[in-house]
Each structure stands twice: as structure tokens, then as C-alpha cells.
Amino acid sequence: MPKRKRAAQASPKANSEEDAAKAATELKENGDVAPLKDDFEVPYADKTITCEKHGSQDIAPSLVFTHGAGGGLGAAAVQDFAKGFAAVAPVICFKGNMNLKSRVKMFHAVVEDQDPAKALGGRSMGARAAVMAAVELEKPPTALVLISYPLTAGGKEQKRQPEGREQILVDLPEETDVLFVSGDQDSQCDLELLAEIRGKMKAKTWLVEVKGADHGMTVKPKSAVQSIGLKTGQIAAEWLSSRDESKQYCQVAWDDEQSAVLCGEWQEQSVSDEEPPQSQRKRRKK
Q1: How far apart are CA 148 and CA 128, in angstroms?
Q2: How far apart are CA 85 and CA 34, in angstroms?
Q3: How confident is the model over 144-193, as pLDDT tens digits?
């Protein structure tokens, strides 16, 4: 395996899960999010796959994650999510090409090269690849983290492709837990359609709804985008560590008055008249 070179970042080294948790807490208190970042390559056919491990280098990753078709490994949406996740648990992100089947094979290569992770995940096309890889692996993951899952194809027509996008979710085994993180303005993941698909799935599912976010997890104002990305990463890592099967919905929103991300508590289910966290906050102040 090619020699790994750690990025030069000043950060405490964690030698155990307890040390990692302590380091993450210290970094968050100091305004830093990612404890460590290690860049390395994984052999793949006659080439290599570029990978980044965010978080403690001495603990197996909790999540193997990949980007979408519209942005690479360095995309802000990927980096912000990974940093937020790494404040709680280690995550490996890898760079793939734009071919879906090839991306699935890359999941195989990264997982086989590393210690088994609890979960696979990705954003957009990467989320589809994670679902497909999960059912193929000899040791399937216990969970999937799907950011901006594309239920419909991009473009003006936004066509549904039930077999390639919906059925693969329905076919997931009941032993797999699935977390969806989707914006309510995502043109490729209508939340009503997602609710319909979730109702058909054998796997248990959870949803984090990001108010005002589009398919790229962009929100207004622009200054809030990074904070939203960090928060969704943190929520995903905490969910992976511990989750309540009876509470499967929570909502995240940016509060202009507070200049902060507000996250509602996990609820039993999503309801159409659920108020965003900032509305609840303002109502309580009256």
C-alpha cells in the first residue's frame, strides 16, 4: 500500500476512543472542528484512489463517504460535512470518477483496504453508489448516511427513474439503518416523494430536513452554508453512534436573528405543519 503522508496540522493525537472524544471536545471549544486530516492513496486496478481521513488516525473510521457528480473531494459541501462529522468520530472520504458503477467498485476497494466501517455514505450520486455498494459487500454496513439523495435525475425535466433510484432503496435489507439528510428546496429529492419511498422500505429510516437548502445544501445567506454543513455532519455522526427507532425526524434551520444553526429535537415523525426551529424559538420568546 502506498505510504501515507499526514497533512501538517497541529492537533492532539488520540490513542483511544476516550482520547478522541476529549480531543474533539477541546477542538470544538477552540473553534476548530477537524482533529486531524490524513491524505493517502488506496490501490485500485492499475491506479489509486485519493482518500482523506478526518478525525483520529488511531481509531477505525465510522463512515466511508464519497462526493457527488457535481463536485469533487474538495467541494465545500463535502469538506464541511466531513469536518463536522470528524468532531464526533473519524470519517474517510474518497475521490471517485463520474461513472456510477466505477464509484461502487471504488467503495469496495476502500472498504477492503481499511478497517470495516459502521456505515457507507455519500452525497447525491455518491449516495446512490453507497446504497448499491452496501448490498454487494461481503460484510455489509449496518447503516447508510445519504446526503441529498437524488430521487430524480437532474435537468429541467427532473425525470423519475424508479428502478435505478427508488427500487434500490426499497430493496435494502431490514437490518440496515438509513439516514437521509435533505433540503426542503432540493429539486431532485421532493420530500413528499421521499416519504412515499420511505414508507415502502424494509430498512428503518430517519430524516434530517434542512430548511431552505437546495440539492447542493446551499442556503441563504451564503455565510450560513458552512455552518449548516458542519452541523449536518455532526448530527450524522451522533446519529450513527446512538439513535432512537421511535424518533425518526428532525429539522435544521438557520436563524438570522441568532446568526446560528438551530436544530430541533428528534420527533416521532415528520408532519406537514411542523414549524422550523427558528419559528418555535421566536414563539417561545413572546
Answers
A1: 10
A2: 8
A3: 999 999 999 876 667 888 889 999 999 999 999 999 999 999 999 999 99
Domain containing 106 equals 33-153+161-266
CA neighbor of 108 nearest in space, from 124, 130, 82? 130
Is the pLDDT at 31 greater than 50, yes or no? no
How far is 218 from 208, CA to CA, in rounded Å?
15
State percent of the chain over pLDDT 90: 72
Residue pair 142/175 in contact (Cβ under 8 Å)? The answer is yes
The pTM of the full predicted model, rounded to 2 decimals, is 0.84
User: Does residue 3 lie within any of the structural domains?
Assistant: no
**What CATH number corresponds to the domain at position 249?**
3.40.50.1820
CA 191 to chain centre: 17
> What single-letter DSSP state applies at residue 267?
B
Residue type, 155: G
Residue of 203, 225, 202 lying closest to 212 (CA atoms): 225
- Over residues 102-134, the pLDDT tens digits come to 999 999 999 999 877 899 999 999 999 999 999
- Nearest partner of 39 among 68, 15, 8, judged by Cα: 8
Phi, psi of 205 (to 5 degrees): -130, 150
Half-sphere exposure of residue 177, counting CA atoms within 13 Å on the CB side? 18
The number of folded domains in the chain is 1
